[in-house]
Amino acid sequence: MTNMMAAKFAGAGIALTLLATPALATEGGSGAYLLGSRDSYAGIVPPPGTYVSVDAVSISGDAPFIAIGGVVVVDPSIDVLVTKVNLTHSFKEKVLGGRLAVTVTQPIATGDFQFDGTAGGGLGISVKDSNTGLGDTTITPGLGFDKGNSHWAIQTSFFLPTGYWEPARIDPRNRTIDVLSFGKNRFAVQPVVNYTYFNPKTGWEFSTAWSVLFSARNEDTDYQTAPEASIEVAAVQHLKSGLALGVAGYGYQQLGNDSGSGAEALQNAYGARSLEARVFGAGPLITYSTKIGSHTLSFKAKYTQEFGAKRRVESDVLQASVAFSF
């Protein structure tokens, strides 16, 4: 692996962006994983070293109903700004013939949540809740393998229920609400297979990732989110100047129906035969990498527009990231 290639890899997507977009079929209007987080260089585990990145993600969307904190709310809309600190360490020692790297991600979120009432008894007016708090910590170990221009990364993300979460508190008589939490109050695990083809002579890159997210039951609300499968792709042209331009997209499909009394309440309120969801998203991305002494500084900006949603809201997601290698 050349120094130039290592510098590019270090500055592009080494840490996972882990927060979900608003959705209809998963509890709380969100899942544990942000679709589209794996794009450029998804299949590459960086060279030995320590890497830090900070992401700012703006998410906006709405839905007919969602179940949140044990309550079904009507016509919700949400705007969230998430700041995430990602720390990745890639080890020198090989494990099973591959490079071992571990990423720890900690999000901090600020959001506004607005809705018109609750199923089975509306509040009569539009109400709004605003909050700031920690999201769930994510730990992602992975192994990287290289063969010529092909690169593979086998990862597993563990979503720990460490973020702020409380059952919804709604008092129609006094017009007081407290429904917005940023933790999921449940453990989740996501095995992932990533692949990147990168030709350093032409600068052409194609990356993809396949994953399935398995969530534990939220015991406090009796809500079991069904497994969530996704495929993510990116096509990028890297220029000698350090600039890279491309497009990225994803497809998402739940593998079954959500279950438990919390899911049944949502399904009955929505009048749906199933809560099984799917959605697609696509948009442009731009990255830039440069050297500061022996270190690499990288920037990324990406916009994603969702489409083709079924039993899931279509969202707009805008992301800006900066990464630094030690």
Write up this protein.
By secondary structure, the chain is mainly beta. The protein has a single domain, classed as Lipocalin (Beta Barrel), CATH 2.40.128.130. The protein contains two helices and 18 strands. The protein has helices at 3-10, 261-270; strands at 49-62, 65-68, 71-74, 77-95, 98-115, 117-118, 127-134, 138-147, 150-159, 169-171, 176-178, 188-199, 204-215, 228-238, 243-254, 278-292, 295-310, 316-325. Strands 1-4-5-8-9-12-13-14-15-16-17-18 form a twelve-stranded antiparallel barrel. A three-stranded antiparallel sheet has the order 2-3-6, with helices on one face.
Q: What's the structural domain tally?
A: 1
**In terms of structural class, how would the helical and strand content be classed?**
mainly beta
Q: Count of helical segments?
A: 2
Largest sheet: 12 strands, antiparallel, barrel
What is the CA-atom radius of gyration, in angstroms?
Answer: 20 Å
CATH topology: Lipocalin
Tell me the span between the first and last alpha carbons. Answer: 18 Å
Per-chain topology:
Elements: H1 3-10, E1 49-62, E2 65-68, E3 71-74, E4 77-95, E5 98-115, E6 117-118, E7 127-134, E8 138-147, E9 150-159, E10 169-171, E11 176-178, E12 188-199, E13 204-215, E14 228-238, E15 243-254, H2 261-270, E16 278-292, E17 295-310, E18 316-325
Antiparallel strand pairs: 1-4, 1-18, 2-3, 3-6, 4-5, 5-7, 5-8, 8-9, 9-12, 10-11, 12-13, 13-14, 14-15, 15-16, 16-17, 17-18
Please give a handful of descriptors for the protein shown.
single chain; 326 residues; mainly beta; Lipocalin; twelve-stranded antiparallel beta barrel; disordered N terminus
